[in-house]
Amino acid sequence: VSQVSRRALASTLVRSFAIQGSWNYRTLIGCGFAFALLPVLRSLYANRPDEFRAAVQRHTSVFNSHPYLTPMALGAVSVLEATEPPAVVERFKSAVRGSLGGLGDRLVWAGFRPACVLLALTAVMLGASWALVTGGFLLLYNAGHVALRGWALQFGLRNGLHLGEKLRSAPFEPILRLIRQAGAFLVGVCLMLLFDGRPITSGLPRGWTVLAMAAALTGSLLGARIRGPLVVAVAGFALFTILARILS
Amino acid sequence: VNWIFLGLIGGVVGLDATSFPQAMWSRPIVAATAAGLVFGRPMSGLLVGALLEIFSILILPFGAARYPESGTAAAASAAAYVVTDTGAPLDPWMLMLAVVFGLGWEQVAGASVIFVRRLNGRLVALPPDGGYSDRQVTQRHLLAMTIDFVRGAWAVLVGAIFGIVLLRALAPLPAHGDGVSTGVLIVAAAAMLGSVLTLFGGLRARAASFGLGLLCGLLLLLLQ
Q1: Partner B, chain A 94-133, Cβ-Cβ below 8 Å
Q2: What tens digit of pLDDT does each residue of B66-101 get?
């Protein structure tokens, strides 16, 4: 790490926000990884242009991870590029990409993000202003988002080749459990407000409320499978209404 | 000028969804509010965005999954809604049309994402001599992001135009009372919200937290 300037590391962290800019089905975020790592590589190979070019080419190869945790891989690779041969760096990248992807997916996409969205929806249903809903949501979410990226870079720099084993002992499970409990709580709050007709109206007729309760129970049993049929059903209802009106 | 701003919002929303910086400006609740704000009615945009958001929570961008793009579709749908609807009093049939249009347009926007990702594959494919210089990596990466920005602007502007045409043609045709449109939307939203519970472990595992949430919701309703 001492061979890499703080400025280069800061630049890499900023570039990591654009790591998925050239996402594609061939190399996934490979090109983005090289793009984000360029300041570090320039710092490490300052007077060795051939090695620099070779390193850039190596890092454009296939790579994938959760975008918010990619700084962890970038940090660790910054250390390894200075101390280990290229083959070790490549093996390391192959080894961590699956676990960083899986962890980020569970922690952020299926945990923190839906919980923040549910909080914003609760605010909408309680009649909060648009500025409070969107501003509050963006502030809360991005406080966690930016903090996670910064922590991930530090974690990668600190642990280098031992990233995998240190990651296993990090306290993600208690955090995830807390997020899930908060998420389930917010689903409950949102559903109760929805049963009243929010955010469209207030005081929904009892018959619709009972139907909504049955629908919520069905949804909780079927999970994500319900989305496709539900979208088709709502669209079908609208289409049926239009056809009935035209034919009458 | 409003349409230029809407295009810029579309570009930013499209870019945020995957490319840069994934700060969730691309969530329907934010994107639709921004589109409503452009035409002077952010609260109407927020209403469309909130309903589309409920349908989007379970869309998870795991790995190389292909999924509908809800952010640009929500912005297009909200723009069409606020341009077509007078807003006072609220027309639930029009709202339903806007939501249905948004749910359909997110499939088109999702297809445009797949197209750009395939294009990116050609853009960053290694040349025969073995690889790119650092400058070429930067240029190609930034070009891919520019294409994504243009795609987002296209998805919102074209979507909004289609939406306006559709809503203007179909809005005068309701064959039932407003209560039916509201009821159908609420029932569908309840089913979607119920399904979100599976993200957090399911009904059985989270019965206590979920039940407490229902009680708090009831308390909030009574207090209001």
Answers
A1: 101, 105, 109-111, 113-114, 116-118, 120-121, 124-126, 129-131, 133
A2: 899 999 999 999 999 999 987 777 889 999 999 999
| A188 in contact with B, Cβ within 8 Å | yes
Q: A99 to chain B nearest CA, in Å?
A: 12
> Which site among A11, A16, A22 would you substitute to test the B interface, given the most B Cβ atoms closer than 10 Å to its Cβ?
A22
Q: Are B14 and B155 in contact (CB under 8 A)?
A: yes
Question: Which letter does DSSP use for residue B27 in this model?
Answer: S
Which residue among A117, A224, A242 places its CB closest to the CB of B195?
A224
Q: Given an 8 Å threshold on Cβ–Cβ distance, is B137 in contact with A35?
A: yes
Nearest CB neighbour to B20, from listed A18, A145, A226: A18
Q: By the 8 A CB rule, do B31 and B69 touch?
A: no
Contacts of B167 in chain A (CB under 8 A): none
The pTM for the full model equals 0.96
pLDDT at A3: 73
**Would you state the pLDDT for residue B209?**
98
What pLDDT does residue B128 have? 67
| Per-residue model confidence (pLDDT) at position A111 | 97
Nearest CA-CA partner of A114 in B17, B164, B196: B196
- Write the Ramachandran bin of B52: left for phi over 0, alpha for psi from -120 to 50, otherwise beta: alpha
Instruction: Name the stretches of chain B with pLDDT < 70.
Output: 128, 130, 174-175
CB contact under 8 A, B217 and A211: no
CA distance B224 to B218: 10
Report the pLDDT value the prediction gives residue B125, as an integer from 0 to 100. 83
Q: Which residue in chain B has the smallest CA separation from A246?
A: B173
- Kindly tell me the burial class for residue A1, based on how many C-beta atoms sit within 10 Å of its own C-beta (0-12, 13-18, 19 or more): middle
Residues of chain A with confidence (pLDDT) below 50: none
SS (H, E, C) chain A: CCCCCHHHHHHHHHHHCCCCCCCECCCECHHHHHHHHHHHHHHHCCCCHHHHHHHHHHHCCCECCCCCCHHHHHHHHHHHHHHCCHHHHHHHHHHHHHHHHHHHHHHHHHHHHHHHHHHHHHHHHCCCCHHHHHHHHHHHHHHHHHHHHHHHHHHHHHHHHHHHHHHHHCCHHHHHHHHHHHHHHHHHHHHHHHHCCCCCCCCCCHHHHHHHHHHHHHHHHHHHHHHHHHHHHHHHHHHHHHHHHHHC
Nearest CA-CA distance, residue B142 and chain A, Å: 7
